[in-house]
Amino acid sequence: MLKAANLIPQRRFVVVSGVVVMLMFSLVIRFFYLQVYFHDTYKKKAEVNRIRAIPLNAPRGLILDRNGEIIVDNYPTYVLTAIPGEIINKEKNFQIVSYCTGIDTSLLKTNYKKYYRGRFLPARLAKDLTFDQLSRIEEHKQELTGINYQQFPERYFPGKINASHLLGYVKEVDQAIIKEISEKEKYIYGDLVGWRGLEKVYENRLRGIKGVHFVEVDAYGREIGQSSDYEKENPVPGTDLQTTLLIPLQAMIEKILDGKRAVVLVSLPETGEMLAMVSKPDYSPDLFTGETTVDEWQEIISNPNKPLLNRMTHGLYPPGSTLKMITAMALMEKDKINYSEKINCNGVYELGDRQFHCWKEEGHGEMDLEQAIAQSCNVYFYHIVQRLSIDEWANACNEFGFGQRTEIDLASEAKGVVPNSRFMNKQYGRWGWSKGHLLNLSLGQGELVVTPIQMMQFINSLAMSGTTPALHVVKEKTHTIQTVHRYSKQTWNRMKKYMRNVVSSSHGTGNRANPGIPGLNVAGKTGTAQNPHGEPHAWFIGYGEKNKKRVSVVVLVENGGHGGVTAAPIAGRIFEFLFSSNENMNLAFSL
Amino acid sequence: MIQLFFQKFKESSISLLVIALFLTGVGLITLKSINAGQEGTFFQLSFFKELFFLIPALIAFITVFFIPRHTIHRYIYGFYGCMIILILIPFLGNEIASTYRWIDIGLPFGFQPSEFAKWIIVIALARYLSDHNLEMNHYSSSIIPIILVIIPAGIVLNQPDLGSAIIILVPLLPMLYWVGARPFHLFLMMAPLVSILTAFHWFSFTLWAIIMVFVIYKAKPNFVFSISTFFGNVFLGLLSPILWGMLKEYQQRRILTLFNPEIDPLGAAYQIIQSKTAIGAGGLFGKGWGQGTQTHLKFLPVQESDFIISVIGEEFGFLTILILITLFSIFILRTIRLAFNVDDRFSSLVLVGLGTIFTAHVFVNFAMTVGMIPVKGLPLPFVSYGGSFLLSSYIMVALIMNLSIDPKDY
After folding, report:
1. Does residue A27 sit at the B interface (CB-CB below 8 Å)?
2. B390: which residues sit within 8 A by CB, 6+ positions away?
3. Does the beta-carbon distance from B345 to A6 stay under 8 Å?
């Protein structure tokens, strides 16, 4: 059969040859198009291709106290990264890394997925590597293709204070959280972003500017060497953030409040600067850096005392008797009160068919306004508050900033509630509420809830006769001035006199807030706020003044019992700390 | 004996060997340029290895050139059987780069049996088609040829080596056409593949259905056959999403990135983009030997084998590419002309089949480097680095030259 004759029609020969010619010609056209027609475009592209910009991490700015002491620092850690495109055998490489570092392979895989950005970009596998771990990795470097380690500046807390709610924390940007960042184009995976507190508010200042160095790289993204054509740009570290905090004071308060659920705020009313801000219970500020185990995290989340809650700005409490001052001032200004008018307190007040009790069961006896504030008599206020409508009372509260944000430079805060007639109609229906509610509200009970930071602003207004700069933790060139206009100078002065009596008179509820330092005048008001969660909350708000230097204090102890017994002594220790020695006075008034 | 050889050699188309050697030379020059940026002793680098591989390639050339054609004709089915076993062997051995293409023969380099399968299958096909001097315009007579290529193609596809599988399949069509099959039958063979490919978009699928109706109408087969052909293909098209799901992920990605290379600039399309950049940057005259920045900064993957054209394009420019394409065209067209002129049908079919293999290799390789078709992993004959393929290519040249001479007593 080999000899079968070959009888191919000419036509078929032409067709087959023609197909080959067409194919080859299409190649020529395509190469001409690329190499001659579009030559310039590709020439430029080739130029860019061999140079790659490698970002250099900028350390975040430090956070300092008012005297320059470091609160939040950076320290260099080592992170382990993997370049997906370079890894030849992922499974084996992870096993070796796991053997070298003791980190579970499943965690390595989770991180690898979490930080994956592309085949030729490093994905973070682990961080905070110790020197031991690094040297073991170095031993196995030959087998570990595509696995590298780099220095990375991590947040570090020198440890004198927690202030965790205030400082906030940073998070590493990954696939999940990049969606929630407002300026996401500025971040890549593995960067740090301020997530809560000061770290978040001052993110732009703290972040710094990443540097870049240009290297020649091969197709696998591997560096061949420094590029000579482009200059390296060094990273610019973030700006240090000087806060108004006073570390020794903050540390002392954190120690006093250990084991309590409480808030203490200290500020300078003249400037609005915060000296100390403590919310207890808190957590270690490095909870969010380093490796947090699931158990640790569970413990914090399930803790009934809610350590993650920032009570300073998000805790809502009835203010108790501290609010009597607003009721009094609103009446004084409207001339609806006679300073010498005496009202008899026999321990109980009847309105309609309801009975309202004074905290002192046997009654205070004959009371004028000054005595009623000093001894915090309820019955006196039951009488006089009826001269106000609920809206007049609510307006007075709003003027002091209740029901609104204080605009302190923390990431967020709660507004609280000041009930007015509209609120009450909504809550109880048009006819469902009565003057009886107002009696309760005027004592700082009932639907009225406030945050401790609002109380800070309230006491500053009282201390400064209505004009005080907005509260802040970081000093700016200008701060908005908060002003309460309505009251005359006499009203302010009278109020201050009454508050001094609370602390200094023999029957005053707040006299435990007075450390008895010569030349130091302390004024304030206690509060004992009934609440459905057990013992009343103990309040003390006040200020101390010596040589024209004023410090204001807010103390709240959740379920602490009587304000005068639990809260006032804490304020007393703060005044003692600040005013007993010139050294501490100088530190506090240094800025 | 030697005199006999020279006599036969003189009568053959020596120009084919000259072109092959010239192209190998271009390949070696390019490899030398690539080596300049690599580490390793002279003997470890591809230039030397390729030069070394040229020795067995030329020995094989001489041997195959000297085998009488009736010997080839007689033993080819035996070879075919051995070849099937050989391409199955890699599955018993170790995975190399997650494929089963290589046989470890105890030497520093592996051995890739699928390269040899390509031309063995062509010869076996040629024997079947010429032996069975059948009425080739009968549809059923193409069934055994189809089986002859489908079995090895299926095995190679599982290695997995899509490129080689296509090279094994492609010669069947021109060979059937060459031997007298009706174009309509070839259309019927192609139809299922086109049905699968067009099914991914309603427009292309509708267009294809209209073309099918037209072609079937023109060919005027009987009614039942027309209807079953049409609906069989439509059904296959509807099945194709399931077939798509059976493809390997990297194969899916390669096909998808053809249509939109920007999808994944660091993934599968990376090679195409880098290669296009290198070739485009070369311009008319190229950057000069050893001057390709893309090449030397290793932006190009597999630049020594599948993407050697990118290096040539960058360093030697469009004019050299034009010369290469022209030389390949001359080589292939000459082979087809020889196939037309040769006296016996067996030789003619072998030549057409081998010409098709060269055409497919050249076109696919050139086209993929510039993004005309998906990355297929096919080397360029004579030029690309690779021992098995060099050996195989020179054997094919020997076969063409051997079988194109008038059969005397050689």
Report:
1. yes
2. B24, B50, B53, B54, B57, B382
3. yes
Instruction: Show residues of chain B in contact with A36, CB under 8 Å.
Output: 283-284, 318
Cβ–Cβ below 8 Å for B339 and A119: no
Distance CA B194, CA B204 (A): 10
Residue A282 CA, chain-centre distance (Å), reads 12
Q: At B46, list the tokens.
A: 């591809």
Say yes or no: B328 contacts chain A, CB-CB below 8 A: yes
Mean pLDDT across B250-272: 56
Range with the lowest mean pLDDT among A53-67, A485-499, A557-571, B12-26?
A53-67
Q: Which of residues 245-274 of B touch A (CB under 8 A)?
A: 266-267, 270, 274
CATH 3.90.1310.10 holds for A53-242:
yes
Higher pLDDT, A574 or B387: A574
Q: Where in chain A is the domain with CATH 3.90.1310.10?
A: 53-242
- Residue the block writes with tokens 């073309």: B211
Among B residues 145-164, those touching chain A with beta carbons less than 8 Å apart: none
ipTM computed for the complex: 0.86
Which of A285-289's residues contact partners 24+ apart within 8 Å by CB, and which partners?
Answer: A285/A72, A285/A157, A285/A162, A285/A163, A285/A164, A285/A167, A285/A169, A286/A155, A286/A156, A286/A157, A287/A164, A287/A169, A288/A169, A288/A170, A288/A171, A288/A195, A289/A154, A289/A155, A289/A156, A289/A169, A289/A170
**Which DSSP helix (H) or strand (E) runs through A585?**
helix A582-588
Fold of A314-588: Beta-lactamase (3.40.710)
Mean pLDDT, rounded, for A439-467: 91
B96 chain-A contacts, CB cut-off 8 A = none
CB pairs under 8 A between A and B: 154
Assigned domain for B149 exists: yes
| Domain presence at residue B408 | no
Q: For all residues of chain A together, what is the average pLDDT?
A: 85
pLDDT at B330 over 50: yes
| pTM metric for this prediction | 0.56
Provide, as residue numbers in chain A, all residues whose Cβ is less than 8 Å from the Cβ of B336.
13, 16-17, 20
